[in-house]
Amino acid sequence: MNKILVLIPYYNNIEGLLKSLRSIDPDEESDVLIVDDGSAIKLNEDLVYESFKAKGKVFFKILEKNGGIESALNQGLEIAQAKKYEYIARLDCGDICLGKRFQIQHQFLKENLEIKIVGSNVLAVDCDDKFLYAINLPLHHEEIEKKMYFNSMLIHPAVMFCTSIIETIGYYPTHYKSAEDYAFFFAILKKHKMANIKEYLTQIEINEKGISLQKRQQQVKSRIQIIKDNFYFGWYPIYGLFRNYILLILPYNIILAIKKMKKNA
Q1: Is residue 23 a contact partner of residue 97, using CB atoms and an 8 Å limit?
Q2: CATH code at position 79
Q3: What whole-number distance in Å separates Cα of residue 84 and Cα of residue 31?
Q4: pLDDT tens digit string along 99-108?
């Protein structure tokens, strides 16, 4: 059995799923677990197998009812533990791997045993694969820890982490709606070190119909609550709260325009 399990939650986006699977380099040695979160558009397993060319197996977990991404992710973590995978990598439908992403992240974690979760820099495109902007993140734990109060300093579908951390931090919190990843990363920060790799190893799709944009206000409100729950009196938490309250009232098209301006600066 491979050491790496790629966890992909699926909900009514078969084309995005196939695109993600096709992006995994054929030389990668990783298995894939697809958790169907009660989709109306059912999975075509034959198409899935045809799209996945890497050196690994594909597993399915079909949930009868839609319980939300937090529930789907936690089901995936349970399976990863039960099957004794050493590492869990994340990928979302429509997002793609660049190069030998999992091999690079796996090697990084093997060479840096104090690091238990690693992300990377990320490219963002629209639904037509038109480049929007690059996301350049802090690389080292100390800076990530400080700036985590501004926003997540790890991009969720771009991370790989050691399965063993589940024993110390538990599963994804279910009470921070649309910001389960942000809360999960804060829980990791309290007990473990994290890092990002400078290379662009993942390309994410900014989809106006996606959960992150449809539920943006809910997401920002959850982020504010997470910052409050992890607050200490200092510059980073205070500025982080101020920044997120501003984001709560700004229309997303203005935020996207600012990100594009930074890209071209």
Answers
A1: yes
A2: 3.90.550.10
A3: 12
A4: 999 999 999 9
